[in-house]
Amino acid sequence: MRTIEKLLRQQKGIAEFGSFAFGEKELSKILDRACELCADLLDVEFSKICEYRKATKRLVVVAGFGWDEGVIGYTYAETDKTSPQVTAFESMQPVATTMKASKPFVLAPFYATHKIISTLDVVIKGKHGPFGVLEIDSRSKHEFDSYDVAFLTSFSNILAEAINSTKKTKILNNSIKRRDQLIQEKNELIEQKVLLAAEAHHRVRNNLQIIHGMLVSRIGELGVDEDASHVTLRKIAGRVMAMAHVYDQLLASGGANGISVSTYLDALIDEIMEIYGTLRPKVVLVKKLEDIALNLDRATVLGLIVTELLTNSFMHAFPDGVGQIEITFKRGKRRNSAVLTVNDNGIGFDELKHSKRTGVRLVKLLVRQMEGELAISTQHGACFTVNIPL
Fold first, then answer.
1. How many CB atoms lie within 10 A of CB 165?
2. In Å, what is the CA distance from 353 to each residue of 109, 316, 378?
3. How confident is the model at residue 114 (pLDDT cuts 50, 70, 90)?
4. Over the range 117-147, which residues count as b (16 or more CB within 10 Å of their CB) and which as e?
5. Burial (Cβ within 10 Å: 0-12, 13-18, ≥19) of residue 50
6. What DSSP string runs through 76-126?
7. I need a labelling partner for 168 at 20 to 30 A (CA). Which of 56, 269, 284, 377 fits?
8. What's the whole-model pTM score?
9. What DSSP element (H or E) covers 30?
10. Residue 90 and residue 130 in contact, taking contact as beta carbons nearer than 8 Å
11. pLDDT per residue over 183-228, tens digit each?
């Protein structure tokens, strides 16, 4: 007669196994513990778990308790309809076997070696098809009753959930590892791209500096005369210098947060003063520059606009060589905008008459490229105001 103590012991064992199995990540440890507990809680000497391999359509012993070496790894053929394991798996029903009364069944040789007399097989079910078979084995004659079948079935159901959980965890861990690998590869590619970009920027900057140096040297050879070729060389030198200073700031900042416009324009304006200062030594230049970051393309266009406007002021606003230029760059009243103003107190110009002049036409083109707005005032000298979206 089944005692209350045994039933309580089995219920406690199932609960303890559930806590263990759902906290364990390694499937082999879960299967080994399941075999050990089943043998203990059902008072038999042996137990084992067979996993169904879809690729080969075979049941393979993957875990066990009490067996000698050589049993773990044994394979049951699907075509072997006389084995209780295959019968239980195919019928999805429990199969109890007693050797003397099991004439329809043919058992593997290791059963006789271990003197097995009684077996009970139940299917380990799963959400996507059965995992395999859970079996208990005894050297004594056991008439496995409905309580034994119910316990082993309940145990196999919990085991099936634990197996499914470990598979999901494995898939998740593999996904995490793959994600981490992809992130690492992405970071390596970004780092490589940054290094290549920095190298390219260095080369561009160095080439621009060489070109600028050659132009300045040629200007020096021409002296202070202001013929057409001289003026053209100064303009080209200024434009080359504007682009070179962009790369100076880009390399200094690493390009991560854009280019500091105040630092960039400050250095650029000083260079322009060196080019035109010998021609207009009595022209004073006042700078008011807020620190705003721009990307490479927009900073380059802004530098070319500043170069062109300052060049125009130096070359055309002060025929007597005396005057003042004021340049400001600050955040605009509109959200995400900035305002550049270049204002001189020179003689001004007729906007309609000179609207097609190369310098003014180039400034208008550059402003459109930045999707900005240009306003020109010639009432008191010349004032160019550029509204720039950030």
1. 17
2. 110, 14, 12
3. very high
4. bbbbbbbbbeeeebbbbbbbbbeeebebeee
5. buried
6. EETT-TTSHHHHHHHHTS-EEEEGGG-TT----HHHHHTT--EEEEEEE--
7. 56
8. 0.49
9. helix 27-41
10. no
11. 888 888 777 766 655 665 555 555 555 555 555 655 565 555 555 5
Contact by Cβ (8 Å): 291, 261: yes
Residue with structure tokens 């459109």? 368
Token pair listed for 135:
């079996």
The token pair at 338 is: 């900035």
Stated length of the chain: 390
What's the number of CA atoms in the CB half-sphere (13 Å) around residue 4?
0
Closest to 107 measured CA to CA, from 153, 44, 46 = 46
Q: Which domains does the chain have, with CATH numbers?
A: 4-178 (3.30.450.40), 223-389 (3.30.565.10)
Which of these, 181, 154, 126, 168, lies nearest to 25 by C-alpha position? 168
